[in-house]
């Protein structure tokens, strides 16, 4: 009985696989799909009857259409044999016996007999495996990140450690499809009908990426806020989706080698919220007030505050309140000092006795006459 089944399967599958196939993108794919198998289109508008071909054999002469924004990976017995990055229609050609077809110019008797014998030895199924997979070359959206507790980093602008709970999303791009498939995609996704999606909650590989991004957030914030070209401003992060994405991508690369080992890169980020801890919020208030009151604006604000204080003291405490205000302002240069620079003190008047003594010495030396001395004396004494 097993022999009959093997013969039936070998002959039936071999005859079905003689037909050329038309491979395309499966229907109903999510926009976040990253890797999926090309599927043969057995029927179209009621025409076509090639629905019994082997799922792991691509017949010579079959056509595969690569749409815009996708690449095509070809596999032979589990090994990547080719990659196409340009959109267009391509024809499958293989030296493998199972791909030969009487409709592709590979002869009539030879493909039929040899394939039947080879398949009979494997219980009626082909003894090789061929596959074509589409890989997205677009930015893949809606990859979420978030922290359940505060993360801390050293902030260059605030010159201290700050902390925050944050959440947002990023776009991901496959920059090296071969590295991505070889080093990261689990074998379970390299099967017909399977779709590798970074946003799939049941995808353990995607969950690992989420954890690595969360682990890289603190270094990414530190890289961004300590970069002088960004102005060291923490408030710019939410306005600079590409700049922070670069910092996050650099932090992920340093910690987990996404680009060099997995062929992945973060392109853009969107930070939905940053909730700073209590200490950081107080510090930000102080820094913002200092920024707002710097220079002439701060002097004007201080004058207004002192004036308001004088008015309030006069209304509620009378002269005693004004005296208190005067003592307080006197310690910092007085009220007038808030309105204009303090003029330099005038030099002290010269002692008249010293002045006359100096004039007498000049008279004795013959430097001045008696009349000159008398005039200086009268002036010094106010006569």
TrEMBL record:
A Pfam family it matches: Band_7_1
Domain of life according to the entry: Bacteria
Residue stretches making up the SPFH domain: 55-186
Name assigned to this protein: SPFH domain-containing protein
């Amino acid at each position: 009985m097993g022999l009959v089944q093997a013969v039936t399967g070998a002959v039936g599958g071999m005859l079905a696989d003689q037909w050329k196939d038309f491979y395309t993108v499966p229907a109903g794919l999510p926009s976040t799909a990253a890797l999926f198998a090309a599927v043969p289109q057995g029927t179209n508008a009621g025409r076509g009857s090639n629905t019994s071909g082997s799922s792991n054999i691509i017949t010579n002469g079959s056509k595969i259409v690569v749409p815009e924004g996708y690449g095509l990976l070809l596999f032979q017995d589990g090994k990547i044999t080719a990659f196409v990055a340009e959109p267009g229609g391509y024809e499958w050609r293989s030296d493998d016996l199972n791909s030969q077809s009487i409709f592709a110019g590979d002869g009539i008797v030879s493909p039929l007999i040899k394939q039947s014998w080879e398949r009979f030895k494997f219980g009626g199924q082909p003894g090789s495996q061929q596959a074509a997979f589409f890989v997205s070359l677009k930015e893949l959206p809606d990859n979420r990140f978030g922290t359940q507790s505060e993360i801390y980093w050293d902030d260059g602008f605030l010159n201290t450690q700050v902390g925050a709970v944050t959440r947002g999303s990023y776009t991901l791009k496959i920059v090296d499809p071969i590295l991505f498939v070889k080093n990261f995609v689990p074998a379970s996704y390299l099967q017909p009908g399977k779709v590798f999606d970074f946003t799939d909650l049941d995808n353990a590989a995607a969950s690992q990426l989420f954890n690595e991004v969360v682990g890289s957030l603190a270094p990414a914030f530190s890289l961004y806020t300590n970069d002088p070209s960004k102005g060291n401003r923490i408030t710019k992060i939410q306005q600079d989706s590409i700049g922070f994405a670069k910092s996050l991508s650099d932090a992920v690369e340093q910690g987990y080698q996404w680009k060099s080992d997995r062929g992945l890169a973060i392109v853009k980020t969107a930070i939905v919220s940053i909730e700073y801890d209590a200490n950081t919020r107080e510090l930000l208030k102080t820094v913002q007030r200092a920024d707002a009151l710097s220079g002439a604006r701060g002097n004007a604000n201080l004058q207004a505050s002192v004036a308001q204080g004088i008015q309030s003291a006069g209304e509620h405490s009378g002269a005693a309140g004004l005296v208190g205000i005067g003592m307080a302002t006197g310690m910092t240069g007085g009220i007038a000092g808030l309105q204009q620079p303090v003029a330099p003190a005038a030099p002290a008047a010269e002692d008249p006795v010293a002045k006359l003594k100096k004039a007498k010495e000049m008279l004795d030396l013959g430097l001045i006459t008696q009349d000159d001395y008398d005039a200086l004396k009268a002036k010094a004494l106010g006569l």
